[in-house]
Each structure stands twice: as structure tokens, then as C-alpha cells.
């Protein structure tokens, strides 16, 4: 099935996703530096992120897990020129690549990349740090419950929270699979269930060039 899913993603991309030299350059540089591309979102998924920001007229975005900053570029495309993105990356090598791609892109928005454990960086933000309109959680899956709680502290009513990789080819359904990343995702579902600070939540399975995975989406009450 993987070949068909990839072919269909290529079909969608060729029809609906306009060429963008910044995005192309980001993927090219990431590949040339020897980094794998499976960690990045697909182009049609990136477009969904862009559109969610546009639908909600978002101006301030928090991203956990920068990697190559490819998703960061999509998030920037959904923002006005005075928009702001704080993106956090835990691995030094990924952060260096992400920063290089951000520098090369020369985007009008302010994009701040911080390196370190996202939970520590978020806890160290000043009390009066302006709240985010949109939060994309795409860092280590083991910490998703912690990231969700910390994100809620940085949210206002109506903030949208999107979490990547919440299906993992169905691994979340395998009771034998006790990997910390999989347990982290299951704990995220339990935390989202009837969470007093969330208006509503859902998750969507996706198939495509990145395999079988999915997004969870929540609106803050
Ligand atoms: C992995 C992480 C991701 O965020 C992703 O989108 C795909 C794979 C990983 O750690 O394997
Ligand atoms: Mg991801």
C-alpha cells in the first residue's frame, strides 16, 4: 500500500501545492546534509497547518520539535508578516540544521529557535509571556502529556493545539508495545479525554508518503 499512498500524495501535491522555492530549498539542504526526510511533515500536511492558521487568523505560533524547520516554513506561510513563531528543538544537530534553513529562508516573520528540552524552555518563559494562538507539538512523543499541559498554560480561549504522529502505524493499539513513545501517545489520549481546559478534541488517521500516522487536534476552552 505504501507505494500507492506515496503516488497519491504526489498527485495531490502536483495539483494543489504550489511550488515554493523556500520549501524546496529547505528539503534540498536537509537531504544534502544527510538528514532523513521521514521526520518532516508531507507537503499536503504542511498546507493543512498553513490553512488552519489562516482560518483562525493566528499571529503567534509555538512549535515543539523543529527538526529541519520544514513545518516551521509552512507555519510561517500561514502568518501575516508581523507574525511570530517560537520553535524549540532538543537535538543540537537538528537545531543547527533548522537554524540554517530558517536563515536561508529570509522570511518576514520573526522566527525564534531555542535549543534544549522543550519542557524546561517553556517553564522558563516569563509569567507574562504573550499567549499563543496555535501550538504544534511534534517533538519526542514520550513527553506529549507534559507538552500538552505546558501548552495549555501558554494558551488563551480558542488556541488550537495540533499534535503530530498520534497513530504510529497502529502501534498505539498494540498492548504489547510499551515503548515510551507509544505509552506517551496513549497517555496523551487519556489526558485529552474530558480535559477541563479543552473545548473539544479529535484525531485523524492519515496515510501518505510518510506512512500511516495521524494528527490530534484540540481547541482550548
Ligand atoms: C518520527 C518523528 C516525527 O515527528 C515524525 O513526524 C515521524 C517520525 C520519529 O521519531 O520516528
Ligand atoms: Mg512529526
Automatic annotation (TrEMBL):
Source taxon at top rank: Bacteria
Any one Pfam family match given in the protein's UniProt record, by short name: Methyltransf_3
CDD domains: AdoMet_MTases (cd02440)
UniProt GO molecular function: O-methyltransferase activity; S-adenosylmethionine-dependent methyltransferase activity
The keyword S-adenosyl-L-methionine belongs to this UniProt entry's keyword annotation: yes
Keyword entries, A-Z: Methyltransferase, S-adenosyl-L-methionine, Transferase
Biological processes annotated in GO: methylation
Protein name (record): O-methyltransferase
Gene source species: Acinetobacter shaoyimingii
